[in-house]
Amino acid sequence: MTKGRIFSGMQPSGKFHLGNYMGALENWVKLQHEYECFFSIVDWHALTSSYEDTSKIPERIHEMALDWLSAGLDPERNVIFVQSHVKEHAELHLLLSMMTPLSWLERVPTYKDKLQQLGIQGKDINTYGFLGYPELMTADIILYKADTIPVGEDQLPHLELSREIVRRFNNLYQPIFPEPKPSLSKSAILPGIDGRKMSKSYGNEIPFAASPDELRARIRLMITDPNRVKRTDLGNPDVCTVYTFHKTFNAEQSNEIAQSCRQATIGCVDCKKCLAEKMVNSLADIHVRRQELEKNPGRVKEILVFGGERARTVAAKTMDEVRQAMNLA
Where is the motif 'HIGH' region annotated in this sequence (predicted)? Predict the structure, then answer.
């Protein structure tokens, strides 16, 4: 017996790093045992800010599917699919756009911020697609009548707008859709190896697909306490990137590691080696699953086709109800 139905999606924007995994994906792996889950690679959403060059989208979809499956998402238990493979997303998005006040879209807090930020980067995203992003997101969610949405706090304004759109539709036509409620995900935030936010643009990321040797190499480059110059210097684990990772991947020994650092009974090299082996062991199953999938790329395509078929079955039924409610049947 599941708690309800979840929809969640990610844009195929490039290869995952470990921070991405510890953010949403690890939470998804846990939720799949409690909910009926629809997980979508939302390629149409990627066009809202990257419509000029679409050449890398197919490769990125494949890479994202690899990441999800190697992380442990079960394609039999979950519906895993590509958004554009289910055309009902576009139809419902169009119908919602007919009844959503423009002022609702313009008041989304992140809209003007992102418009300015991406504008500085030279991107022209003053488009309807970017403005209407929340409507497409709403269509994604309610097409499957999802009642629970795993989100971070920064996404709550978007979800609240979705709830408003649902209420407006239900009041104007028929009460077809449940109001989706947020499930705030609590996850560890991992810094990059230089202590800043983990980001590919900074070059400080740990690739999610890193092999054990690549993982060890990245950990060796991690920034430690800058005031600890010699092995005998007393350290401060609270300013050490390595210790931040220990708290996530070596929680049972983290207090001991901190004390040893403060007393200088462990050096930074040994501390990194200890962390590396803990992380290699912790991520071993992910690495093995990915190796197996990379040997059989056709399997990934089969899973996405299978997921698309399952998603379309649910989506088609929902759209029949929508058309009848709007007298479009």
Answer: 12-20
